[in-house]
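[job 4471] stage=fold_predict status=RUNNING
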Amino acid sequence: MSNKVPLVASTNLNLWKLKTKKNMNVSDLKKTALIYWPVELAEKEKLSSIIPLLIRTQESFISILRIASKDPFSWITALDLCDELYPNLFLKHLCVLSDIGGENLKRFSSELSRDFYSKDFEFIFRDKIYQYQFVSLKNRATWNNKNLGLDGEGILKPCSLSQEIRDVIMLIMFGGLATSINVPDEIEEKCIIGAMIGNIRLLEEYIKHRYIWVSKITGGAKSNKMGQLAQEYIREKLKVYLPEWDFSRKSIPGISQNEGRTLTKFDIVGIPPHDRPPYWGIEVSFQFTTNSVVERKGKLARDRREILNRQHHKVAYVVDGAGNFDRSSFIQDLIDFSDCVVNFSENDLKRLAKTMEDSIKNEPQK
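[job 4471] inference complete, writing structure tokens
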């Protein structure tokens, strides 16, 4: 029995049959558009954005650092008494402020284990020398986002204060105060929070300015992440409707827009079961698409269709979102210079799948 989902949609599909692509316009596309993110995409997006959670718990984070001025270990008691912050979220604050990510931590655990397997970490805090034992390094642990509870799903689930989390917190807070000459320069330069503890004005100013900067630089990252989520959403839908097609590639052999130097990249490429033309190059755009991307895709649309059609391939666009429908000229360009344009609604995605399926029936076989 086939797993294929029937491509016969509701009466909306019949309405589309009456309207050819030639006289289709932006209003037609918008009538059935979702405008806002599908529920399942919105749920995934929550996991991709940590900045709002960090901003919301910023005051609690600062409060713990205030208390930590007594000695370099008093943050442990303060954190245990704080309901709003939990160990892995406290660590995430430190990682973001210090610009230290999972790859850095993984590398540190490898580099530092050689030096601190048999000796303690020594540092100076408020004119006193302290020693700390990185127990997890002695146990050959690897510091990474997953086992520290710092990945997308993990950060939303409170972790207990594991030895790995405790060790990484101590490194990020006091690594810049280390007396060892073997500590990497990157740790000395980035792990400077401990040097500001005790000077609350300096500490608050640094944290708040740092989060303003972080919010700005993560804007582009969020846009990129949301674009990837949207592409994956469409790919999964098409795989259900066209289970025999291959959607694993990003380019089509022989299709280039720079005289053959590189192949043209598409968000999704659909390859028919017989692995012969027409292949479908599919571009996906929702409301988080930046102006520069919009302008680039609009300018490339005409050339892209001509190059693809010349080799018996097709191009399609999946567009939706309030931001895109505010750029009507952009969407009209896509309508004019494509083989199919649809929105994110279920019926429209079925229409795209049906159009792709029909194209291999109509294409002359060589």
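[job 4471] summary: The radius of gyration is 27 Å.
[job 4471] exit 0
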